Amino acid sequence: MQQVAGQAEVLEGTRVWRPFAGQTALSTALRTGTGRVVLTGKGGRVIVGSASRLRVYSEETDFQDGQFFMEGAVGAFALGSHVVLETGGRARVDVAASGSRVAVLVGSLRLSSGSKTATLSAGQQINLKTGQVSAFKETDPWYDAQFAGTGAATVEAVRGPVSVRAGSQPAQDAKVGLSLDENAVLSTGSAAWAEVGFTGGGYLRLTEQSELRVLAIEKTSRGREVLLQLTKGSAWNVVQKGQGGYKLSTPVVSTAVRGTKFRVDAAGLVKVMEGQVDVPSSDDAAVSAGEQKPLGQAPQTLQLDDLDRFNIAQDSARARPMTLTVSGAAGWVSQMQLAAKTLPDTVVSAALVGPQDQALPLTTEGQTATGEYRLAAAPNLPEGRYGLKVEATRYGKTLAWQGQFTLDRTPPKVTFLKAEERGQLLFITGQASDASKRLTVTVTTQGGQRVTHTSGEIRVLMPKPKAGQVQIQVQDEAGNQTNVTLP
């Protein structure tokens, strides 16, 4: 083992796996997480890809699961076959439950399985289970991209019962923003779905009654490499061009793409809406836009069903521009209120902005489906001025709103209030004070009503009533009132 990038473990004894540390001779077994390992021998080298596993057998590597690249004069085993690559050769080996192969890029190799021997040259591949030889054209050169670190798979939307399980930990509800670690399993229940976004762009929609395992997400010098496994149900995939490799396997079929829109079912059905999907498990059959390929059959004309139409409609909904409207928390208020309106499948959060931001509780039950949120409970805050931040997150994109409000529960102070008769007129005077500085004065008598505004001095002239009392109301901008009755 000469070079390790990312996560790798070696087997100590028969049961204990230890993280790799430093250059060492490999004598037992090796497995990778998100990362790569370079093994060197006397005549060449082997690059071990992410989510792969091998052992040492007869002093050579025995590829057991995952993706491998051989260069130079190298000997190895794969599913019981002995592979010998000639000097100067380059070949890849893919081992998976859905299908395994050896493909030659440069030079030639000899493959022995029992009493049978086959020689392959550049541009040929052999199915390790059937022994069938076919033409090969490389479309997924993952080994030529330099590993640059671990990427991310993030839950971007959920609807209905969706859970995630990591290792031996109990399952938990999948929330928007949750990062799916290596080997995390995402599951959807009845009438549920979830969307997962990836480093570099693109997304996968896991439809109802489905299960997806995240094998590895790499950052590379060419973008990223995504390795996923669909163990149950159906997955709708939108892969952006120019972002790197994307592999999705099932128990019976494997796919490899570099920019397309397609659907894969765990039972082996592949449907392509845009671009082209290679199916290495079917001797690199190519399924083009407008085609579908059932397991074990040749590509045929695409036939849309209800699940396809649901996904197409959901893609259109996802593409809508984000919106965010916030009301109720602006200017002067006596009690904090907040309402937010956005698009469905958006998660909204709110916080008071200050030396220490304080998150505000918002209603969540069913709100992502309607896009309507409100303050669940008003916080107990002292009077004063506050900053407010509201963020809406939808499919990995965020839209922010910021504002300010002043919390004021104190009614205006009114002094020196009196009413004087001046012929047929009534003259009301007095003084009012309040933090808001803009006050509304309403004087009501049996003869009518007069409304005026002031910042302090009260002066109201109106017709003198024939009888009755004079009602005076002073209200500040927050709605706090002081009421006075004069004889």
From TrEMBL:
Residues 185-277 form the FecR protein domain. It comes from the Bacteria. InterPro entries: FecR (IPR006860). PANTHER family: BLL6125 PROTEIN, LIPL45-RELATED LIPOPROTEIN-RELATED. This is FecR protein domain-containing protein. It comes from Deinococcus xinjiangensis.
